[in-house]
Amino acid sequence: MPTPELTSLRSARVTAAHRLGKRSFRGKERRFLAEGPQAVREAVAHPGGEAGRTLIELYATPEAAERHAELVAAARAAGAPVLTATPEVIAELSDTVTPQGLVGVCRFLDSPFAAVLAARPRLVAVLAHVRDPGNAGTVLRCADAAGADAVVLTDASVDLYNPKAVRASAGSLFHLPVAVGVPVAEAVAGLRAAGVRVLAADGGDGSRDLDAELDAGAMSGPTAWVFGNEAWGLPEETRALADEVVRVPIHGRAESLNLATAAAVCLYASARAQRAPGGCRSVTSS
């Protein structure tokens, strides 16, 4: 194994990367950290944009570089410098208890909200007042799995590039457009103007029932789901903005569903309805 190139926690390069653990520095540099082979693999594969490739540089322990030699070679082929570092340096950059030996520095990925609307989305997840980064990343992963066209994080929600959110997305952050910092009223108005029906998800106090919506065939058109804070749900003023407030039925004795589970149920319900005969995804794009 090669001798690590980076051994000091105080080196300028390590210090600069370590600062990306803080939101203020991420916003200033428009860079974030992607940890572990899955996230790094997605960063390598992501085409990037006008600013350049998504993966700017990769830090790896010699052992991880050897274990993931193909991934390291792909990063180099994509033009990203690969720097070997001691486990102590990687731990300094890591947000996990047991680092996996790979940390990538990446460019921000978010898309302008106007671009999301211009793409005529058919299924969108809107995170309003979601403060827990793990929840935000997991909902992003659910949206990706359900085939959503975009995710919108309002200005009252957690930072998309929080290390816990990046990790919880399990690579989905790199798969679909995400708009950030959009005021909730602007998000709802823009989606509605684009022909998207806006539904506020509620744990048990909605005016409509999800099963009833499906039975009535009301879920087959373009839809945006607005999800709120897991602890206290959606504020009344946000609920009032939606076309309907829809509750997820609890058929058993559970008190409630957590945010990510409720989001998965709602998004998959829409995805199934849209792919049924006559749904907005049953016709080829034109």
Give start-end ranges of low-pLDDT stretches: none
> Which class do the helix and strand fractions yield?
alpha/beta
Shape descriptor reads elongated
* Range of helix content: 25-40%
Terminal-residue CA separation: 54 Å
So what's the oligomer here?
A: single chain
Strand content: 15-25%
Describe the structure.
Helix 8 (133-145) links the parallel strand 5 (123-127) and strand 6. The protein has 13 helices and eleven strands. It is 37% helix and 18% strand. With 286 residues, it is α/β, with parallel strands linked by helices. Strands 7-6-5-10-8-11-9 form a seven-stranded parallel beta sheet. The model has no long low-confidence stretch (mean pLDDT 92).
Characterize this entry briefly.
The protein is built from 13 helices and eleven strands. By secondary structure, it is of the alpha/beta class. The strands form two sheets. It has a seven-stranded parallel β-sheet with strand order 7-6-5-10-8-11-9. It has a four-stranded mixed β-sheet with strand order 1-4-2-3.
What's the arrangement of secondary structure elements?
Elements: H1 12-18, H2 23-29, E1 31-35, H3 37-45, E2 55-60, H4 62-67, H5 69-77, E3 82-84, H6 87-93, E4 102-107, H7 113-118, E5 123-127, H8 133-145, E6 150-154, H9 163-168, E7 178-182, H10 184-193, E8 197-202, E9 208-209, H11 210-215, E10 223-227, H12 236-239, E11 244-247, H13 259-275
Parallel strand pairs: 2-3, 5-6, 5-10, 6-7, 8-10, 8-11, 9-11
Antiparallel strand pairs: 1-4, 2-4
